Amino acid sequence: EVQLVESGGGLVQPGGSLRLSCAASGFTFRSYEMNWVRQAPGKGLEWVSYISISGTTIYYADSVKGRFTISRDNAENLVYLQMDSLRAEDTALYYCARGRYCSGGSCFEDYWGQGTLVTVSS
Amino acid sequence: EIVLTQFPGTLSLSPGERATLSCRASQSVSSSKLAWYLQKPGQAPRLLIYGASSRATGIPDRFSGSGSGTDFTLIISRLEPEDFAVYFCQQYVSSPGTFGPGTKVDIK
Hints:
The structure holds 2 protein chains of 2 kinds. By secondary structure, chain A is mainly beta. Helix content of chain A is 0%, strand content 57%. Chain A has no helices and 11 strands. In chain A, a hairpin with a 4-residue loop joins strand 7 and strand 8. The N and C termini of chain A lie far apart (40 Å). In chain B, strands 2, 4, 5, 6, 8, 9 and 10 form a 7-stranded mixed β-sheet that branches. In chain B, strands 1-3-7 form a 3-stranded antiparallel β-sheet, with no helix packed on it. In chain B, strand 5 and strand 6 (54-55) form a beta hairpin. Chain B is globular. Chain A binds chain B through residues 44-47, 59, 61-62, 95, 100-115, and chain B through 33, 35, 37, 43-47, 50-51, 56-57, 88, 90-102.
């Protein structure tokens, strides 16, 4: 069974940092592209970042470019999102999702974790 | 960036009825790279349809997708109690992939 489990969310002050992790199991992690997608409270879905199978190709949404860094560890079946210079508008539930039929970092996501909540507030 | 519009915003129906949800793109979504997701309160989105009309693994055949170019449709032939939720469309033909604002299907 495919499982994606996010962790690392919490309350942080504006300008602060958090590192999200996503632990994958139930599939050959090193063979799949991965994404982070977020959802602000009561709002819709926003793609945040993409990482290729090898980790050498990475894309970011304009709203987080220069502040967030995605990475992966294929030996440990983990994907990360380092979030720096956080802003109030980054408050959201952050989902880790497996990407399929990706092109230029744009994929559909066939499996999603349950999300980890990031709240940016003073 | 391709902007997706979904309508109606809310659809109020009874169990057993047919639901028709629409998704319109601001530019052509070539190769029908359009997906549909269902999201229940407090849960992660679940993939229903990809490639505009291909059902994802385990999705019952009462869900069907169609369309091409800029206009796409999701049909639920007979609503079951578990189908009352929010439905999002997504295009993945160009970066960034974008989602529609969602259609809420609630119980009449």
